[in-house]
Amino acid sequence: MSSEYAKQLGAKLRAIRTQQGxxxxxxxxxxxxxxxxVVVGSYERGDRAVTVQRLAELADFYGVPVQELLPGTTPGGxxxxxxxxxxxxxxxxxxxxxxxxxxxxxxxTIQSQRGDYNGKVLSIRQDDLRTLAVIYDQSxxxxxxxxxxxxxxDADARRAVSHEEV
Length: 166
Prior knowledge:
This is Transcriptional regulator. By secondary structure, this protein is mainly alpha-helical.
């Protein structure tokens, strides 16, 4: 294992441990001595190679999938996260109902579930966009272009859709 990879892996291990509010000694205590603080610390610094078996056991101890511990496999890496999908509800209100009716009803349902009635914007998930694409009988990318042309979605939404379709 290259030293750079070991350091990136160690940084992931440290991030998971600290997210769980554990010190190195806390790991040792919680694991009842199975994971020694000095060993986990050396993994985190990249000073000691971790076997696949031990990495899987450590992931299980932390309660995370192994891939969360591997460098370059999660959005926390160097890759820029896709932009959020934000509907402009004020502009949506000006789109003719025969075109935007399903979207308006869907947005109203989300607002009702969230208790979010600011009336200006509404963030939606990728899954919501896929559901809307089914309702509109279009691909997510075609629907995204339609929503951008209506002024309901920002042009940055293209990156979110292209990120999903890769």
